[in-house]
Amino acid sequence: DDEGARRDDDDAPNAMIPRRVAHNPIIGPGVVPRGVDAEYDAACARDDARDGPATTTHVPASGRAFTLDGKAREKAPTTRTQTPYVTGTSALGLKYGDGVLLACDTLACYGSTKRYKNVERVKKVNERCAIAFTGELSDFTYVCNLLEELTTEDFCEDDGMTRDAEEIYQYLTRVMYNRRNKFDPLWNSLVVAGLKTNGETFLGTVGMIGTHYEDDHVCAGFGNHIARPIFREFYKADMTEEQAVEVMRSALYACVMRDKQMMNKFQICKVTKDGVTISEPFAVPTEWGYEKFYNPTKFSETGW
Q1: Which of 76, 189, 223, 266 is most exposed, with minimal Cβ within 10 Å?
Q2: Is the pLDDT of residue 39 over 50?
């Protein structure tokens, strides 16, 4: 009879569960609070009796999510987030006679969107060291927290000693390589600048899997392809600060004209025996009136 047919349909394992009829303010669409729809509550009770209760931990007791399969999640392998979301582009470093310069822009992109335009991507570690980064902003925040712990430890020792730039550099190589070995890398490339204990200048870069090297000029990110040739051509070991700043501004100009994820708003950090100084944001003069810019595909047969 009709009543028996309805009972058979209700007991079927693939019986249709009514869709959402309310919006939960905590986790949004996909949840029907208990007590709103009696038919839905009855269907959920049958599912729980047959399959067991849902195992998702973030669903509040007042509702049930129909879009999540808790048992499937339990069986799935543990995964790591391998995609950066909010990122910064090039970071440049350059030695000169009395110190070291770091430079980068203040933009953090959300994908390809120029989302955050006042991010300080260079950080003072202590009076003898500063670092700049490319890559994921949240991972760099984690690195900064680690360095804050080291700085606090130095302060608490109260022995007048602080870690120099080379020690910070070696520490970061171990941190990055350690996370790489856990298959959960910190999605950053870092430029470390400062002074050694003996007063010599230091400049090095650390990659996201622990690769590292020292040089008189280094770059991370896209600037490694654009700014580094400029540094190779104009670098001199005995440059004055004014000459070094001029070379750095030329490199920044070359980068901003070619990198779509860079904006014309930069900061330069200077590390000398007098300490660490980070400049106010500034812009470099740009020129978009070049003749070949008007018709860039004129001599390109495949251009559109």
Answers
A1: 76
A2: yes
| Cα–Cα distance, 298 to 162 (Å, whole number) | 59
Residue 123 CB coordination number (10 Å): 20
Residue 91's contacts (CB-CB under 8 Å, 6 or more residues apart) are 102, 103, 104, 121, 122, 132, 133, 134, 189, 190, 191, 219, 220, 221, 223
What is residue 53's predicted lDDT score, i.e. its pLDDT? 57
Asked if the model's pLDDT at residue 35 lies above 50, the reply is yes
108 strand-pairing partners: 116
d(CA 4, CA 111): 56
DSSP annotation of 120: -
Euclidean distance between CA atoms 166 and 213, whole angstroms: 11
81 annotated active-site:
yes
Q: Is pTM beyond 0.90 here?
A: no
Catalytic one of 56, 57, 81, 151: 81
Q: Give the DSSP H or E segment for 212.
A: strand 212-214
For the record, the structure tokens of 124 come out as 């003072």
